[in-house]
Amino acid sequence: MTPMDLKLIKIINSHYYQLQTGTTEKVQFNGRTYFDKFKRIDKLLSQQIINQHLTKEITVAHQIISKADKVENIIFDYNGNDPQKFYHRAQLILREDGFINFTAFETKTKGHLHLYIHKGHTTLSEAYQLGKTLSMKLGLKMPKQWRVFPNPDLPPQFNILTLPYEVYAKERGAAWSKHL
Question: How crowded is the C-beta side of 9, counted as CA atoms within 13 Å?
Fold first, then answer.
């Protein structure tokens, strides 16, 4: 994983979240109780912190939603058993819908992927709707084994994802691709 690979997903680096061991904080949201295992660290997410994460000394997560309620990426957190099939199906659906910039990253658990769809400055409500639509389209082709972020069913501080470890595959559209 290179710093350039992480720049592709435009991480909010003004702060980060670090996995804590021991006690967790209870969070009530929409009648449900969540247990927060990550602590917000209000320091710049530096390359040194990222390197500690990549060597698995610490576990670091990044914020998905900016302070202005904008998102840069729609993210599929795939936790199934066939990442190759998932990526192939998602790739076809995304191309069909006109998305030509997306990157899949491997997570800590083998076979699990984070698929970042690079949308750019998108309002939160549009991101929720777009994520739901893409998830439904993909759900028609294969069993649902993923979650979509940003997720309106989670508290804002739970709309975070751990930093990826390796690039699985990336797709960068070309100018000619719109003519296919």
Answer: 29
CATH class of domain segment(s) 3-173: alpha beta
HEC profile of 93-162:
HHHHCCCCEEEEEECCCCCCEEEEEEEEEEEHHHHHHHHHHHHHHHHCCCCCCEEEECCCCCCHHHCEEE
User: pLDDT tens string for the chain (180 positions)?
Assistant: 677 777 777 888 899 999 988 767 888 888 888 888 999 999 998 889 999 998 989 999 999 998 888 999 999 999 988 899 999 999 999 999 988 889 999 988 888 999 999 888 889 999 999 999 999 999 998 999 999 999 999 888 889 999 988 888 887 765 444 444
Report how far residue 123's alpha carbon sits from residue 106's, in angstroms, rounded to the nearest whole number.
27
